[in-house]
Amino acid sequence: MDTIASLFSFITTPVSWVIVQFHTVYGAIFGPDTGWAWGLSIVSLVILIRICLIPLFVKQIKATRAMQTLQPEMKKIQERYKNDKQRQSEEMMKLYKESGTNPLSSCLPILAQSPFFFALYHVLNGIASGQTIGVINDQLLESARKAHIFGAPLAAKFKDSAATIHDLGASVTDVRVVTVIMIVMMSASQFYTQRQLMTKNVDTTVKTPFMQQQKMLMYVFPIMFAVFGINFPVGVLVYWLTTNVWTMGQQMYVIHNNPTPGSKAQAAYLERLTKHVTTHGKVRRRSEKTIVKAIVAKGRDRNEFERKFINALTKAGLAAAADGTVAKSESQTVVQAEDGTATTVTARRQQPKRQSKSQRQSGPRQPGDAPATTSLEKSDDLQDGEPQDDKPAAPKQSQKPGSGTRSKAQSGQRKGGPQRPKSPSKK
Fold first, then answer.
1. 294, pLDDT greater than 80
2. What average pLDDT does the segment 271-281 reach?
3. How many CB atoms are located within 10 Å of the residue 122 CB?
4. Residue 117, Cβ density class (10 Å: 0-12 exposed, 13-18 middle, ≥19 buried)
5. N or C: which end of the chain has fewer CB within 10 A?
6. The predicted structure's pLDDT at residue 175
7. Of 146, 124, 154, 112, which is closest to residue 12 (Cα–Cα)?
8. Confidence at residue 44, expressed as pLDDT on a 0 to 100 scale
9. SS3 state at 333
10. What angle do CA 290, 295, 300 make, to 5 degrees?
11. By C-alpha distance, which of 290, 256, 236 is closest to 118?
12. Is 213 in contact with 197 (CB distance < 8 Å)?
């Protein structure tokens, strides 16, 4: 660990300078030799670094969304080469290259802050060994060695000997208890962050190598933190615990306000959005307009949750526009009953009444004409023994196969009994 930290010694001076500046501020409030002054200085360093990494985090979110859009293509590749894993991996890599996406983009924030992590480790290790480093002089070094966080010195480690811990003015029990609690909290926060990502913010309908990678990281990172945590000074544990809590809160905010399409988080988000829109009749924030706009643009490619959202708006008499706004639908009207309750009625186009063949042949009815007798009425009359015409039935003629003449059934004539007149009888 010391060898790796020495590789980032070029950034040690900037990191130590930032810590000293924060220590000057907090030292004036809590006292220069207190654990609050030095501990809050490390926490403030984490917050400053993570604020600077927000653009990188946004890039990570965009890359994750790009991976989500590729999932239908990934599913096709999996089905096409399900018996050839090597060819499947090759086609996946080809798809990543053509789309410009990278499945390792989720690790960018961790890789970006690694130099700061090792630089802080180098600074705290110098404090533990009594060596000045960066801008930390002898006076600041002595102040940092006196600082305790819940009874544990800032530079103490879990594996330090009793003599080393005694030189720092603490007991072995205090150091072991504090470091174990911080290691457990650090690993648990990392596991919860990854589990939240896998269970709530991932489209589970498609199984991809990206999902397998995230699932593996969900178990690997907590184990790594637990194993290497016993070699970290208390100050580094404060740093890493703070950055894990920041990441967890940042992830919760993204899942709550900008979920992945097709995930459980999107179903919960659209349910909340439906309640608000149907109650107030409008979209309140720009981010919500962006999501509604994306749903409208998908058209028939909407997933199950997005279709439910559109159907719920339709039932409420609302319609989502292409610009992400929501307005009242013109195809629905609200009718107020006598008791004062309002009912939404869908205006349907009335279909013309279907006419019989005799009505179509006779043309439009003129005022004063007798109503035309339908074929059903004629059938009833025939069954009652009251034929419409006195002419005998024409003999049944056989037709040769292949002739161009239509059969009697096709021409509207009955196969047996009295024939139906082509036009309504007028008396």
1. yes
2. 89
3. 23
4. buried
5. C
6. 92
7. 124
8. 93
9. strand
10. 160
11. 236
12. no
* Cβ neighbours for 55, distance < 8 A, ≥ 6 positions apart: none
State whether the Cα torsion 94-76-66-203 is positive or negative.
Answer: negative
More confident residue, 74 or 16: 16
Encoded tokens for 393: 């039935």
Instruction: Give dist(CA 229, CA 236) in Å, integer.
Output: 9
Would you tell me the crossing angle of helices 108-128 and 54-69 to the nearest 10 degrees? 140
Predicted local distance difference test score (pLDDT) of residue 176? 92
| DSSP state string for 201-238 | SS-TTS--HHHHHHHHHHHHHHHHHHHHHTTS-HHHHH
Report whether 179 contacts 234 (CB < 8 A).
yes
For the chain, the residue count is: 427
Structure tokens at 290: 């962006």
| Cα–Cα distance measured from residue 347 to residue 340, given in angstroms and rounded to the nearest whole number | 21
Do residues 162 and 237 touch, judged by C-beta distance below 8 A?
no
The full DSSP string for 34-68 is: SHHHHHHHHHHHHHHHHHHTHHHHHHHHHHHHHHH
Q: Sort 132 into a burial class: Cβ within 10 Å, 0-12 / 13-18 / 19+.
A: middle
Element at 193 (helix H, strand E): helix 172-200
Radius of gyration over every alpha carbon of the chain, rounded to an integer in angstroms: 39
Among the listed residues 408, 69, 116, the one whose alpha carbon sits nearest the alpha carbon of residue 261: 69
Return the structure tokens found at 230. 């016993």
The answer to whether residues 274 and 309 touch, using CB atoms and an 8 Å cutoff, is yes
* Cβ burial 145-167 (10 Å sphere, 16+ → b, else e): bbbbbeebbbbbbbebeeebbee
For residue 366, what are the contacts with CB-CB under 8 A and spacing of at least 6?
none
Lowest mean pLDDT, pick from 16-20, 30-34, 102-106, 379-383: 379-383
Q: Who contacts 308 (Cβ-Cβ below 8 Å, separation ≥6)?
A: 270
Q: How far apart are alpha carbons 50 and 187 in whole angstroms?
A: 19
At residue 333 the predicted structure's pLDDT band, cuts being 50, 70 and 90, is very low
The pLDDT tens digits of the residues spanning 71-110 come to: 777 778 878 888 888 888 888 888 877 777 776 666 677 7
**Phi, psi dihedrals of residue 153, rounded to the nearest 5°:** -60, 150
Return the number of other C-beta atoms located less than 10 Å from residue 87's C-beta.
Answer: 12
Q: With CA atoms as reference, report the closest residue to 344 among 392, 281, 409, 289.
A: 281
